[in-house]
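Appendix B, example 12.
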Amino acid sequence: MKHLQLSDIWVYYTKGQQVLRSLDLEVNRGELVALLGPSGCGKTTTLRVIAGFVTPQRGKIMIGGRDVTKVSAHKRNIGIVFQSYALFPHMTVWLNLTYGLRIRGVPKDEMKKRGDKIIEMLGLGGLEDRYPSELSGGQQQRVALARALVIQPDILLMDEPLSNVDPKLRERVRTEIKKVQRELEILTIYVTHDQEDALGIADRVAVMNRGIIEQMSEPSKIYEQPETCFVADFMGFENIFPIQSIGSGDESIVLVKDVKLRVGTMDHDGKYVALHPARLTIAREPAPGSERLSGRITDASFKGDRVKYFLETGLGELSVLTSNKDFSVGENVYVCYRPEDILVLTG
């Protein structure tokens, strides 16, 4: 059931500057959707539109079948976790956590019941009397999440919630957020510029660019089958080249800079091919019958358990990410690929 619907949303911050343009978004009850994209793409503005902090110049916002386009923010029953956490420094964890309940006039016994439950759920026991300055970044993040959830909101909005969390803790905190979200079955919109965060936490990912959603689907499809050059590039398909011509008939061949590439799925409206560095391999002697390009290694970048090689090929510069560390700069090699790993994009 569609619980949140944005229809034909337009937002201008200054005359002629479109921040959101004809944006449509539908989210089901209990679903976690990540808005993913670079700075300035409109994802935080979308969050602010849902929250009621920004009124669109055009379009409609529906929550639970109710038109809330003109409803003020404090009447939408929405919980928000800000990037900075926005905890009150002069209040203890308990006072921060129950702030929303107090201003809503929730009775003390009900406040105690809700507060204790969310503290147990998020592992904050023993921290009730501490102040934000006495907490780690991960603990502050959990207090901010608890404060947003304790009011039992219809929708939870999270704006770059892990940007201040130590990289070592990010995966664990992501897991905690997802666990709580599933347990409470609360519709959640999660804004991030980090692909790993989006893919690791969301039921569906909406990739945004210049005020629109370019593609929205489950994480695996976003990663493996991007539909546009922008989404492909954002998801790590660094090797994108314009198609010169497409083979006729049943032959799945495209011509790129006079180099023939065999592709797994042909789209005769295709304008570009995209090759992910991790789906290519390098060999000195390729297996018989394999699809390959000849090239010369021009540079190498150590990536821990893998190496990224840069090669000059007939297509131009090509990057390959592989666990094979036996190659040297200046070496002539073959770049091998599977036709099904080459994407044909229409734009």
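The first strand starts at residue 2 and ends at 14. DSSP finds nine helices and 21 strands in the chain.
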